[in-house]
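DM from R.C. (forwarded with permission)

"hey, sorry to bug you on a friday — could you get me a structure for this? deadline for the figure draft is monday and I only need the backbone to look sensible"
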Amino acid sequence: MWVHILWFVLGLTVLVVGAESLVRGASRLAGSVGISPLVIGLTVVAFGTSTPEMAVSVHASLAGTPDIAIGNVIGSNIANVLLILGMSAVIIPLLVSEQVIRQEIPVMIAATVLLIVLALDGRISRIDAGILFTLVIVYTVFLILQSRRSSRVAANTPDAGRPQQSQWDRHWGVQLLLIVVGLAALVLGSRWLVESAVVFARFLGISELVVGLTIVAVGTSLPEVATSALAALRGERDIAIGNVIGSNLFNILAVLGVTGLVSTHGIPVAEAARNFDLWVMLAVAVACLPIMLTGREIARWEGAVFLGYYAAYTAYLVLAAQHHTALPAYSLVMLGFVLPITLLTIAVSVVNHGRRGSHRPGPGP
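My reply, with the result:
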């Protein structure tokens, strides 16, 4: 078992190093195009930090462990919002741009709803996967064209959210090498991670779905954790938020799209995921909208609420996997006490925000 733990840790390390190499090379190439920091976060950085999910899910599907593939995506999306945005907001309150509220969050919610609809029959077929992959291409092209039309905004903040200028990686050949090395490391690290995770599941007597929702999901989200936390510390808040929203979209549309296309029979979706985890993912996506509407920022206390809910969700998965006797009481407390209070707090915040907006003085004569 210790050998598998070592391989698991080594796999995570290689994944993080590979993602860093890929993001650095891709960001430097994209930076010369002149797109905005938010779009860089939504595309280059988000897609780059989500490549561990891509590598793990594809390998898991080809290795005959599809529950890890689907659990990895669902768990990563939940962790991206509750854990990563929560942690970033606790570090520093995150100001949210109007484009994120008006466009990106509704797109993320729509993609989540589409995934649930496609999964209702218990499988993401190759046709479903083709639809998802086509949508990520359309979405990416739309963002790039939209950003180039708004190049004036990008010109006002030319260096925000991009890697610091340095000498050694300024040549395009070095940047391409970073991308190739990063991709190779991601493939290798994902193989070690998945194989070790399967051993853990069998040793602990828990399902591969739960392992995918927890251990693998958090492990493959480490690049997002590092990127968003560092962006928040540096005040690059568009990158922090764009990374999370873009990663969630990429996970649903690209990761499941590619995984379903390379799998002969598509991706089976376990009943437990259809009945519970997919709906938690949707609730988390929807929860972003009212929280970000309250002053167009994620305050520290809201970030703390996100972190608390992630801890509660993880605890539920562990209790359910062990069929623990405390599970009914725990579920009752969550549904009957914690959730209503949180919803009431968010509702009061939205109402107060609306009142403040209606009492703002109008423009002077």
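R.C.: lifesaver. The radius of gyration is 20 Å.
me: no worries. DSSP finds 14 helices and four strands in the chain.
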